[in-house]
Amino acid sequence: MSLQDELDALPGVTATPDDATRGFVFNHTMLRVKDIANSLDFYTRVLGFTVVRKRDFDEAAFSLYFLVRVADRSAIPADEPARGQWLLSQPGVLELTHNHGTQDDPGFAYHDGNSEPRGFGHICISVPDVEAACARFEALGVPFQKRLTDGRMKDIAFIKDPDGYWVEILQPTPRG
Amino acid sequence: MSLQDELDALPGVTATPDDATRGFVFNHTMLRVKDIANSLDFYTRVLGFTVVRKRDFDEAAFSLYFLVRVADRSAIPADEPARGQWLLSQPGVLELTHNHGTQDDPGFAYHDGNSEPRGFGHICISVPDVEAACARFEALGVPFQKRLTDGRMKDIAFIKDPDGYWVEILQPTPRG
């Protein structure tokens, strides 16, 4: 029995995807953020994301920001509608929702999902060299939830974005 | 000024990604789920995901399930370690965390992030034909948070996974 066969035999699993799901893409994850400038700084400067689209809903007083982490920015179409169609066809897009004004309320904070009531846990960035990446985060003053040396799992770290959302850091390959 | 230049000029944005972020990939989003069989049914049968990896932590009484939505399952390496390295290099992976036993507690529920305290909002699946996809979800009895016909935004829908997490459904291209 292959590894895939074993996983496909788990309770609940449909082993052969329905033809009707052809072309489905896990496109994005949406997080609300308190101060969009702080969040754009973190995701573009610290993690290397690119902002691909901004949509403003002035009447409802919120804006949406769509970010991607791509190897080559020239892959992003320059103009709409090709740009938006490309964006919504990609896996791994991050959508940030900013409700206008929250950044000016000192007592305002979003919930990171890791204390009660729990639910969402984290997002994860995979990196070519987890030790180098974590050393750079330290140098940049990024707060850590878990350093590589903390706890039992020595191959993963968690940093925190400006709202306190956990961002797991790992490398796909064995550490040298 | 190009559209990208305008976005790169937003407060907080670093326009040129640091070379140190080369190879960074937005790999996955983690959600806790109460009943893993129900969740695997939803994500594999309704949305066409494939389970690529399961990790059990018996002492701490939880298991992790990694799922991808791919066009061609033959792209997934059959065996470890290639399989795990491939998985952790992909964008758009979904990680489900199951704390053992929660499925047997009638009062247990996770928080979807969309009532207080808010934070995480939703994940999104893009589909080739949003009307056909929504008609199929209706036929399958999937609960909706927002049908295409609800509210002002007629081009997007939200369905709910077994824990009540919102899953946005949209199509990248104009509707015919």
Overview features:
alpha/beta; 4 helices; 176 residues; globular; 2,3-Dihydroxybiphenyl 1,2-Dioxygenase, domain 1; Signal recognition particle alu RNA binding heterodimer, srp9/1; four-stranded mixed sheet; homodimer
CATH architecture assignment name of the largest domain in chain A: Roll
Number of helical segments of chain A? 4
Shape of chain A: globular
Low-confidence stretches of chain A: none
Average pLDDT for all residues of chain A = 97
Rg over alpha carbons of chain A? 19 Å
- As a percent range, the share of strand residues of chain A is 25-35%
Pfam family, one (chains A, B): Glyoxalase
GO molecular function, one term (chains A, B): lactoylglutathione lyase activity
Protein name (chains A, B): Lactoylglutathione lyase
Function (chains A, B): Catalyzes the conversion of hemimercaptal, formed from methylglyoxal and glutathione, to S-lactoylglutathione.
Can I get a quick summary?
Chain A is an alpha/beta fold. Chain A has 2 domains: 25-105, 2,3-Dihydroxybiphenyl 1,2-Dioxygenase, domain 1, CATH 3.10.180.10; 120-176, 2-Layer Sandwich (Signal recognition particle alu RNA binding heterodimer, srp9/1), CATH 3.30.720.110.
Task: Please describe what this structure looks like.
Chains A, B: GO terms for molecular function: lactoylglutathione lyase activity. Chains A, B: It catalyses: (R)-S-lactoylglutathione = methylglyoxal + glutathione. Chains A, B: Keywords: Lyase, Metal-binding, Nickel, Zinc. The structure is a homodimer of 176-residue chains. By secondary structure, chain A is of the alpha/beta class. Chain A has 2 domains: 25-105, 2,3-Dihydroxybiphenyl 1,2-Dioxygenase, domain 1 (Roll), CATH 3.10.180.10; 120-176, Signal recognition particle alu RNA binding heterodimer, srp9/1 (2-Layer Sandwich). Chain A has 4 helices and 8 strands; from the N terminus they run αβαββαββαβββ. In chain A, the strands form 2 sheets. In chain A, strands 1-4-3-2 form a 4-stranded mixed sheet, with helices on both faces. A 4-stranded mixed sheet of chain A has the order 5-8-7-6. Chains A and B meet through α1, β1, α2, β2 and α3 of A and α1, β1, α2, β2 and α3 of B.
